[in-house]
């Protein structure tokens, strides 16, 4: 289970950045709290959402993306594996 802390959000951002995605915080009305722009490999997160919603939205996108493990270091690959094995309990 993911802890609801800024550190967890930073780990998710770093994981996605290493995989070639950019994470931006903008105002928006996303039903899930975040959206993925496939063509530019950018993830837009609602900056007005609370921390729990941001983590849930980014984690769900990271879980569904096809990320090349060769782009990640050992800790990030382990974190991604853990992320894909768990479901969020919010």
UniProtKB/TrEMBL annotation:
It comes from the Bacteria. This is Uncharacterized protein. It comes from Mucilaginibacter pedocola.
């Amino acid at each position: 289970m993911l802890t609801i802390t800024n550190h967890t959000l930073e780990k998710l951002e770093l994981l996605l950045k290493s995989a070639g995605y950019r994470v931006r915080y903008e105002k928006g009305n996303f039903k899930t709290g975040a959206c993925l722009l496939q063509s530019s490999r950018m993830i837009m997160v609602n900056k007005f959402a609370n921390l729990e919603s941001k983590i849930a939205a980014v984690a769900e996108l990271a879980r569904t993306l096809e990320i090349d493990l060769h782009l990640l270091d050992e800790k990030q690959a382990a974190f991604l594996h853990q992320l894909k094995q768990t479901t969020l309990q919010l």
